[in-house]
Amino acid sequence: MSKPVISCFEEIRVKLMKRIVVKKEKMRKVVDTICPKPREIVEKNKVRASADCIPSDTGSTKIEVESIGGSKYVVDIQRRTCACRRWNLTGIPCKHAVSAIHFMREKPEDYMDSCYLKKTYIATYSHTIQPVNGMDLWMPSNELAILPPQYTRQPGRPKTKRNKDAAEKENDGPKLGRRQRSLKCETCRRLGHNSKTCHRHLPLKTSISIVTNAQKKNKLNTGEASSTKAKGTNPPPPPKVKE
């Protein structure tokens, strides 16, 4: 059921007010300096780094890390970049970066992006939404009432389905054609067409003419043609008898 605009804004304000308090209290209970989800990713990368990566010293802040599969990646600790680009895109050290950081005797937590820190999260939800009295306590206004926008009907038949994104379109399987095999003709009782298009599925005339010619030849060979009467001829009249 649709609601007035002011009532809708009031519901959004109350939900945001409650959400800010819940997020703030939840993060205050966290003991770690990093948010829980980034912490899980870092711990997984630590396990992968110990089992899959072999760092090599180059005498600079750039470390060459070789994986068991044979591929090599250059990790720049000073610029916080890796050749696999996971560290660049997410801000969380990948397994190659974790291996290089451990090789330099440092902690991966010190190389996390500032957006994943607990203090940043608390600072984001530090503001509060002030409470508001009910509508019956509001001061009356001389301004015009807020009305919904006028609806203008678009030309054409209204759409019942929304326009799907390219990623939502189903491309699996062959494309279905317009021919429906479930149709059954009422004239010839065959599938694949109806009575209106039945004449398109009739056998060719050449095959019919070939069959009729073969039948005529068989009749001539068996003598059936001599016994039949010729078309357009009358039998001879009987002879007259003199009295």
What does this structure look like?
35% of the residues lie in helices and 7% in strands. The relative contact order is 0.08. The chain is built from seven helices and four strands; from the N terminus they run ααββββααααα. The model is unreliable at 225-230 (pLDDT under 50). The protein has a four-stranded antiparallel β-sheet. The chain is flat, with a radius of gyration of 44 Å. A hairpin with a 4-residue loop joins strand 2 (62-67) and strand 3. It has 243 residues and is of the alpha+beta class. Helix 2 crosses helix 4. The protein starts with a helix and ends in a 16-residue tail after the last helix.
Layout: helices, strands, pairs:
Elements: H1 5-28, H2 36-52, E1 53-56, E2 62-67, E3 72-76, E4 81-82, H3 86-90, H4 95-103, H5 118-124, H6 205-222, H7 224-227
Antiparallel strand pairs: 1-2, 2-3, 3-4
Q: What's the rounded overall pLDDT mean? A: 81
Anisotropy-based shape: flat
Beta-strand percent range: 5-15%
Q: Radius of gyration, Cα only, in angstroms?
A: 44 Å
What does the largest sheet look like?
Answer: 4 strands, antiparallel
Euclidean distance between termini CA atoms: 117 Å
H/E element order: HHEEEEHHHHH
Helix content: 25-40%
**Number of extended strands:** 4
Discrete helix count: 7
* Biggest sheet, spatial arrangement of strands: 1-2-3-4
By helix and strand content, what is the structural category? Answer: alpha+beta
Detail the poorly predicted runs: 225-230
